[in-house]
Each structure stands twice: as structure tokens, then as C-alpha cells.
Design a protein that fits this description.
Blueprint: E1 2-5, E2 14-19, H1 23-33, H2 37-44, E3 51-55, E4 60-69, E5 79-88, E6 91-96, H3 102-105, H4 110-117, H5 122-154, H6 161-191, H7 200-255, H8 257-265, H9 280-301
Parallel strand pairs: 2-6
Antiparallel strand pairs: 1-2, 3-4, 4-5, 5-6
Helix pairs in contact: 5-6, 5-7, 6-7, 8-9
């Protein structure tokens, strides 16, 4: 659906917002704005990596930018999907799907529309879009840090398989976010050498977007290091708990072997020593207790447990 956004004041630029591009929308863009099939293919590709491209025939500037996608029931970890900006003259087109519509839903607020209307030209408007989009990565990383801190607090008590799965999802999320942030940074840096004639104010907003992305890049690196340490510590604790369990089972399997041997030995229907009176069973029990105690003391002396 193609929708022209209206600002509270008259501007010399226009903003067309396209959500879930359909075939009818593609035909309309080609008829009304002379979009080429190559441009349509770029904006239709939901797996396009962040980059900047200039079409000499239509004199249009295409920008692809990744934004984070929050976990859902289907996907338990953060991912990233692209949003696309196309600047054609004094018109800017934004393309997104339902999963990335949250970026532009924020601009439906009257206060935000007034803020966008303060832009001097289309390049400053574009830089504002990139600035606000880049801030979502920090929100995502902050949420992951909170979730990781909750798991960290469980290390002093007990950590189970569910917690390990959550920790694995955090690690996956950080990998996705880190990859997207790095490619977004490459795209933002390439804009400084692009054919877009950024105004002074637009360059300042673009610098702000670069600073936000660099901060996100540093944040995700720190978060990855902390998460890796937490994961290593969790694995060590799980292995240590497993070793303790195996030691416990080994000790008691050895201890319980003694009464099994003696009772089995004296269960034979043959003449055996110390088996002549009705109270010899008591002597056998005493021997079992003494042997078991001796074995426990011996293993404890050698630090077996």
C-alpha cells in the first residue's frame, strides 16, 4: 500500500510510505514515478544487505538499512530485516514489511511529524530517518543485557537446561545484531562519498547516526564478551556438577558392592564359616558395616569426594 504522509506544515519535499509492497504497488511506482525493474527488484528483496546504490537513468538514490526484529513465538532470538529508502528528486520513498513497520509507526505521532517537518530538504529528512532507525539497536542490546543479568544471578543458585537455551538465544541475537550493525556502518560511511548533496544540517544528523551506530557496535562487542564469559562459566559449572554427580554415584556403587558380595556369598547352600548359629547374621552385618566404613574413610582420605 502506497501512502503519502502529510506534514503539519508545507514542505518542499514529499514522503511516500510503502508497506508490504504488492504487484499493484510496483506497477503504480513504475507508471507514476518511472521506477525501473532493477529498483523494484532491489526494494522487493527482503534479504538485501545494507548498501547504497545510485541509478544514473532515474537519478535515484537507493539505501538499504537493517533494523532489529524482536523475538517472537516462532523465533526466540533477535534477528534483523532491511528497510529501504529511495530518494528521487525531492521525494523520499520508504519501503518496509509488517515486521519492520514499527520503525515508521513512531512517525505517526504529531510531535514526530512536526520534528520531521523542520527538515530543510529531503537529505535532512533522510538523515533523520537513519538516525531514529539506528537507535533501535541500543534498545535491543539493553534488553539482552537485562536478560543476561537475570541468568547471571542464577549462577550462584542453580542453572538448568531452560536457562542454557535462553543464554544460547542471547548469543545468537548478539551475532545477528553485530552483523547488521557492521553492515549499517559501512552503508552510512559510504553515504559521505555518495552523490547525495547533504546540507550542513543533514551532515550533522548523519554524523549523529554514525555515532549511534558506533556506540551500538561497541555495546554489542562488550555484551558478546560478557555473554561468552557467562556461557563458559555456565558450562564449567554444569561440567563440575556432572563430575560431582558421577563421583557420588561411583562412591556409593563401590560401597554397596560390599553388602552385595557378602550377602550373595552367604546365600549359597554350602557349608560356610561363621554360619553355625541363628545369630551369625548379626556378625555378618557388623562385618558389612565395618568394611563399608573402612572403604568410605579410605576414599575420603584420598580426596575421592
Amino acid at each position: 500500500m502506497i501512502r503519502q504522509q502529510h506534514f503539519p506544515v508545507t514542505t518542499k519535499y514529499r514522503w511516500f510510505d510503502i508497506s508490504n509492497l504488492s504487484e499493484a504497488d510496483s506497477n503504480q511506482l513504475q507508471d507514476d514515478f518511472n521506477f525501473t525493474p532493477d529498483i523494484i527488484s532491489y526494494i522487493s528483496d527482503r534479504h538485501e544487505r545494507p548498501h547504497y546504490d545510485y541509478d544514473v537513468h532515474t537519478r535515484s538514490h537507493l539505501l538499504v538499512y537493517d533494523v532489529p526484529i524482536w523475538p517472537s513465538k516462532a523465533t526466540k532470538h533477535f534477528t534483523s530485516h532491511p528497510i529501504t529508502f529511495l530518494v528521487l528528486g525531492q521525494d523520499v520513498f520508504t519501503f518496509h514489511t509488517e515486521s519492520t513497520s514499527y520503525v515508521f509507526d513512531e512517525f505517526n505521532d504529531a510531535r514526530m511529524q512536526s520534528r520531521l517537518a523542520e527538515a530543510q530538504d529531503v537529505t535532512e529528512l533522510l538523515a533523520l530517518f537513519l538516525l531514529y532507525a539506528s537507535q533501535y539497536f541500543q534498545r535491543a542490546i539493553t534488553q539482552l543485557d537485562v536478560e543476561r543479568n537475570v541468568l547471571d544471578s542464577k549462577l550462584s543458585d542453580d542453572i538448568d537446561n531452560k536457562d542454557l537455551v535462553e543464554l544460547s538465544n542471547i548469543e545468537k541475537s548478539l551475532v545477528y545484531l553485530s552483523s547488521s550493525i557492521q553492515t549499517d556502518l559501512m552503508m552510512l560511511n559510504s553515504l559521505q562519498l555518495s552523490g547525495l548533496d547533504f546540507t550542513k544540517e543533514a551532515n550533522e544528523r548523519l554524523d549523529d547516526a554514525l555515532i549511534e551506530s558506533k556506540q551500538s557496535s561497541e555495546m554489542v562487542k562488550i555484551s558478546q564478551q560478557v555473554t561468552k564469559t557467562l556461557s563458559t562459566t555456565s558450562n564449567n559449572m554444569m561440567n563440575n556438577n556432572l563430575n560431582d554427580t558421577m563421583k557420588f554415584l561411583t562412591v556409593w556403587s563401590l560401597v554397596l558392592t560390599i553388602p552385595t558380595i557378602l550377602t550373595g556369598f552367604y546365600g549359597m547352600n554350602v557349608t560356610l564359616p561363621v554360619a553355625h548359629t541363628a545369630f551369625d547374621w548379626l556378625l555378618i552385618i557388623i562385618i558389612i558395616v565395618l568394611l563399608c566404613t573402612w572403604l568410605i574413610v579410605l576414599m575420603k582420605k584420598h580426596h575421592f569426594f
